[in-house]
């Protein structure tokens, strides 16, 4: 088993204003999250948010502590959210086994010492997408299906943003310390996400794009509302969004994305809207 963990540092709008394409991608884009029987993690200094991926194929994979945490075990001071974006799998938490199928989630509270990931079929391995944040207390571990989620449908085909938002790990579904995760599925013919765009000074966010058809891409928009930038992204890639930045995208096809947030509060609606006509 291999484990790779890198650190991404926080930046100000003034610094980011001068980035070229290569610098932007190096700072914000997470290009590879899944490797066979491996763990890949990115530790961001924005709210100490960890984004990661685990794809067990030939053997179970254990989530070990990394140097950035200076901890005896990964969840010593953290909570963890998992969404499976691959084949059927299992997550074993301190001996308790949870079946996690495609587009199902698992929340694991602080203090769990052993987390093991496995696939039910090596031919169609599970792909576990992870978000983790610091935690001040312990809440129960729980599996969340799409039937358990709070579901909201927004937008319209006429504005190319007809979408279903599945709120999976949010405080209206289960208690967490600060982590929130959900999944937005765009309808055929729709390509825009998070439009009208917004920022939220009180938390950061990470988007993970998947179900992007082969040969298609997503253009992710970021930056301050009056000075936006873009990043071209492919399937199974994630992008870090600072609290001062918008986070929106348009694809050359419809797609699905997972949003993960952390910060000062758990109010899903806490955002500062940016009128479409005022974006620059």
Automatic annotation (TrEMBL):
Could you tell me what reaction this enzyme catalyses?
Answer: 5-dehydro-4-deoxy-D-glucuronate = 3-deoxy-D-glycero-2,5-hexodiulosonate
Pfam families, per database record: KduI
Q: Which UniProt keywords apply?
A: Isomerase, Metal-binding, Zinc
Zinc listed as a keyword: yes
Q: Which GO terms describe its molecular function?
A: 4-deoxy-L-threo-5-hexosulose-uronate ketol-isomerase activity; zinc ion binding
Residue positions annotated to bind Zn(2+) are 198, 200, 205, 247
Q: Which pathway, per its entry?
A: Glycan metabolism; pectin degradation; 2-dehydro-3-deoxy-D-gluconate from pectin: step 4/5
Mind telling me which SUPFAM superfamilies this protein's record contains? RmlC-like cupins (SSF51182)
Q: Which Gene3D superfamilies match?
A: Jelly Rolls, pectin degrading enzyme 5-keto 4- deoxyuronate isomerase, domain 1
Biological process terms from the Gene Ontology for this record are:
D-galacturonate catabolic process; D-glucuronate catabolic process; pectin catabolic process
The note on the cofactor says: Binds 1 zinc ion per subunit.
Question: Top EC class per UniProt?
Answer: isomerase
Instruction: Please give the cofactor(s) recorded in the UniProt entry for this protein.
Output: Zn(2+)
Q: What is its EC number?
A: 5.3.1.17
Record keyword Metal-binding present:
yes
Q: Entry's InterPro entries?
A: KduI, KduI/IolB_isomerase, KduI_N, RmlC-like_jellyroll, RmlC_Cupin_sf
Family, per entry: Belongs to the KduI family.
Task: Say what the protein does.
Answer: Catalyzes the isomerization of 5-dehydro-4-deoxy-D-glucuronate to 3-deoxy-D-glycero-2,5-hexodiulosonate.
- Enumerate the NCBIfam families for this protein: PRK00924.1
- Protein known as: 4-deoxy-L-threo-5-hexosulose-uronate ketol-isomerase
Query: What organism does the UniProt record list as the source?
Result: Chitinophaga agrisoli
């Amino acid at each position: 088993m291999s484990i790779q963990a890198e650190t991404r540092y926080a930046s100000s709008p003034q610094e980011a204003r001068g980035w070229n394409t290569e610098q932007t991608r190096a700072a914000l884009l997470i290009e590879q999250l899944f490797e066979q029987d491996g763990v890949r993690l990115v530790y961001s200094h924005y709210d100490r948010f960890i984004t990661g991926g685990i794809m067990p194929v030939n053997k179970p994979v254990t989530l070990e502590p990394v140097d950035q945490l200076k901890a005896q075990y990964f969840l010593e001071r953290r909570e963890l959210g998992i969404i499976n974006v691959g084949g059927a799998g299992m997550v074993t938490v301190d001996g308790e086994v949870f079946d996690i199928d495609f587009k199902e989630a698992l929340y694991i509270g602080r203090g769990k010492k052993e987390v093991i990931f496995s696939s039910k079929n090596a031919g169609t391995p599970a792909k576990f997408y992870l978000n983790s944040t610091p935690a001040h207390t312990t809440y129960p571990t729980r599996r969340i299906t799409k039937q358990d989620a709070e579901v909201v449908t927004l937008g319209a085909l006429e504005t190319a943003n007809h979408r279903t938002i599945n709120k999976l790990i949010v405080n209206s579904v289960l208690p967490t310390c600060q982590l929130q995760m959900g999944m937005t599925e765009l309808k055929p013919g729709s390509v825009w996400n998070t439009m009208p765009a917004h920022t939220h000074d009180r938390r950061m966010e990470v988007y993970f794009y998947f179900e992007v058809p082969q040969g298609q891409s997503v253009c992710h928009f970021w930056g301050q509302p009056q000075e936006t930038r873009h990043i071209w992204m492919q399937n199974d890639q994630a992008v870090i969004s600072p609290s001062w930045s918008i986070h929106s995208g348009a694809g050359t096809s419809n797609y699905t994305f997972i949003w993960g947030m952390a910060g000062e509060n758990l109010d899903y609606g806490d955002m500062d809207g940016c009128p479409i006509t005022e974006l620059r």
